[in-house]
Amino acid sequence: GVLPMNTNNASPSASHALFQSRGWLIAGGILSILVGFAAIGAPFLYALLIVKLLGAFALVSGVISLAIAIFGRHTGHRILESLSGLIRIAAGIALLTCVVSGLAVITIILAIFFIVEGVVLSVGALQMRAHSGWVWTLISGLAAIFLGLMISAGWPSSSECVLGLLFGINLIFSGTSLLALGMGARPATTV
């Protein structure tokens, strides 16, 4: 976890744990914000880095899966595990060798995800009309549909910036949240 365990007290309060992690929260927040702005400033570079990272993950994951299938003691799913490993190895190699094409594929998958998520949220919001706040869920769903349609309308040329831009925006929000938690952390008061 992010928060360290206090060995002096078996059950430290959440505010005390936050206060103890204050420096890490602030440092992590600042770093996330800086990297977020860098990603917004160079979205294509960060998009390529993300694709390469996903490719490396798929490749390593596939090799491990294949090794488990070959050398593992459980023989029940050896063929499926081998096939799964080989597919991940192939996907990893494809992402690492065809980075721009991989970026285009990941971008269209992201657009489809946003559209499907938006439809699900919108339908869910309409079914929750009796509850307060349902309008915000509907707005979120419609925004996701709009974003998905915008990305797909600009595809494949939008692939060059969308992934890096969204990554940067997410890091800025995440970093701001960490920074606010760190800045607002106060020592626990004894009652």
Write a structural description:
- By secondary structure, the chain is mainly alpha-helical.
- Helix content is 77%, strand content 0%.
- It contains 7 helices and no strands.
- Helix 2 (22-41) packs antiparallel against helix 7, helix 3 crosses helix 5 (99-127) and helix 3 (43-71) packs across helix 7 (162-184).
- It is globular, with a radius of gyration of 22 Å.
- The chain starts with 13 loop residues before the first helix and ends in a 7-residue tail after the last helix.
- The model is unreliable at 3-11 (pLDDT under 50).
Question: What order do the helices and strands come in, and which of them pair?
Answer:
Elements: H1 14-20, H2 22-41, H3 43-71, H4 78-97, H5 99-127, H6 134-153, H7 162-184
Offer a few descriptive terms.
191 residues, mainly alpha, disordered N terminus, 7 helices, 0% strand, single chain
